[in-house]
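During the reporting period the student researcher (J.K.) took over the structure-prediction task from the postdoctoral fellow and processed the backlog of single-chain submissions. One of the processed entries is reproduced below for the supervisory committee.
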Amino acid sequence: MKRTLVLLAFLLPVITHAQDHQKLLTRSYSEAQLSGMLVNNQDWVTLPAYSNRGFWDGLPASIRSEFIKRGEGLLKFNWGVVKATDYMEFTRTGDRNIMQNPNSDRKNALQALALAELAEGKGRFTDQLINGIWAVCEQSSWVLSAHLPVTRGKDLVPDVTNPVIDLGSADAGALLAWVHHFFRAKLDEVNPLIAARIRYEVRNKILEPYYKRNDFWWMGFNDRPQNNWNPWINYNVMQCILLLEEDQAARSKNIYKAMQSIDRFTDWYHPDGACDEGPSYWSHAGGKYFECLELLHHATRGKLNVFSHPLIRNMGQYIANVYINDPYFVNFADASAKGGINEGMVYRYGKAIGDPVMMGFGAFYAQKEKMDEHPSSGTIEAVITDLTSMKEIMASPAREPLTDHAWYPDNQVAIAREYPGSKQGFYFAGKGGHNAESHNHNDVGTFILYYNGLPCLVDAGVGTYVRQTFSPDRYKIWTMQSAYHNLPLINGVQQKNGREFKAASAAFSATAKQVNFTADIATAYPAEAKVKSWKRGYSLQRGKSFTISDAYVLDSFVAPPELHFLTACKVDASVPGVIKLTGQNFTLSMSYNARQLEASSEHIDNKDPRLERSWPGGLERIVLKGKAQGVKGDYKIEIRKS
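J.K. obtained the following structure tokens:
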């Protein structure tokens, strides 16, 4: 497949193809080198100890009091149990939250009590903290029900003789490892068996399975493409190793194993740095990979350092480039339209790669969210890390990243604003790619369009995860189907999932006057669509309009083409040839040739809390149905401000 990139423009972020990034870490550092660099005790930890009362007592009063207030609200928390039937619910009904909710409640309570005791330092929360430690340690499995192996025809329960490491178990292990680090001396004053229980459970549930097994798919020691699970789990496992493993040979050997595994993540990553899982997953994909590098940097006192590699820069800058206007981000794949960032992590990432835009982005969100008045969210080490860098971030110049335009040639994602550095006017993002991307939707050739930073033509995103979401029935969910993206229905046929269903001849160009993105999307449809070519184009004429164009050739005619559009606007299609789109504080006219196309619209009720958060009240689907019955045709739709 030929890809064309025309770089004609001012302010265009040039997404360079990184130098060879295969085995990025282990090609640079041998196991023997790592062993010589790795700090053999806990001196690598940069977070303030429990005994550092100057730090904890010196926190802003509002943050300190909020930590303590949260802890006070948990002094009578009923730790309960995660019941066997909570696990069984996943195979019985597909509901994963029945297990995940009490499991998360326990971990959240344990973390909140730990932060309360760190903040107050008087021992008032110690007994309930111990109750939390004991409750989590007593739990047979820390694995989320949706991630456990399913025995056909049997209700789901964990096999305690065969521990699984997943996102949930690794997260629990890391939380307990940090609680052990901060409070071991205090716990030992009560009884050394408490801290010993943490070490026992983390070793049995995390360390030993990690040391002995290479067959967890997320490790990457196979041919399976990697996603956010790889850096996310490895990051938590490395924290367990660095905080709890006392055997120095095992420590070095298995941190190096983690480096080998993390290399498999970047081996699969495209050089342009775009996250094919969408911006909602970036914090746990590219962002978590950065935190792995940051952890290794700390654990070697700065000796392990690959932050200058072009891939690392491209991966980081992606999250700033796909920002539209708070709270909106480009939301292809399993991403929600409304999002945010971990401001501390984005700032630190920017600082590590020397990028003032990322640093400014982190500072922008930190100042917007009043980071120096309210604790940030996230894992215990992320919250505390933010506290240590809070003053620096709040004093740093804030910069909202209003990227003019960018092109990711490997992932075939294009973005552009009508006016450089401004939220005013049109914002467009389009994609080519293929239909086997991570967290894939059948959406090759789709686009989104915002006006004055607010949604107009949109991607619905993804609903609440259930059993069907990651099953063979995934593409029966309406949000995954091409008919519910801004795409054509060809001869009555939708796109199909699979690596072979892809865009061809994707190209992007940008000048001071116009931005264009084109691709032939015929190859994203199966044979029964009987389509020879379907050239979809998007053109942003700066200061004027946004145009969608289609030119097609069919092998034979079966049914009239239909052009589908999802919108968050109110729709008025009563006048042939013009559809009025009324959004928040704007009205646009969507013009089409009424001799060629007939317009209709329908309301789509979300019926899902996750979708409702992005699109309160639901969405409208516009259908422009072709009138001609030939095997060739072309359409042009122009959108302007009314």
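The committee noted the following: The two ends are 40 Å apart (CA to CA).
J.K. will present the remaining backlog at the next meeting.
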